[in-house]
Design a protein that fits this description.
Helices cover 45% and strands 29% of the residues. By secondary structure, the protein is α+β, with helices and mostly antiparallel strands. Strand 4 and strand 5 (75-83) form a beta hairpin.
């Protein structure tokens, strides 16, 4: 199965990387490696997660992030990668504006 990451998700990942890199040098790279590993797992496990906002939601293993994706015939399309620590109203707004 193919995995497609939309520009909105790429921007979310870049924002997360920047945040963690400001905390401690090198953690931003670890964040990216961890999240991409989680996203890669969609090739095997895509479609088994709970639905929210019309998308499947997979929680990241090492960071408090949720990966929102949709399934197509031969692909998992990653829409957003959002920080779970944010206000739920902010998350709803982000998902409505996708």
């Amino acid at each position: 199965m193919r995995i497609k990451i939309l520009p909105s998700a790429i921007q979310d990942l870049a924002d997360g990387r920047s945040f963690y890199e400001q905390q401690t040098s090198g953690v931003g790279d670890y964040f990216m490696d961890s999240l991409f590993s989680d996203i890669d797992s969609l090739a095997l496990y895509g479609g088994i997660h709970r639905l929210s906002f019309g998308c499947f939601v997979m929680l990241a293993k090492r960071f408090p992030y949720a990966i929102y994706y949709k399934m197509e015939a031969d692909a998992a399309i990653v829409w957003r990668v959002l920080d779970c620590r944010r206000d739920p109203a902010w998350t709803r707004k982000q998902m409505k504006n996708r």
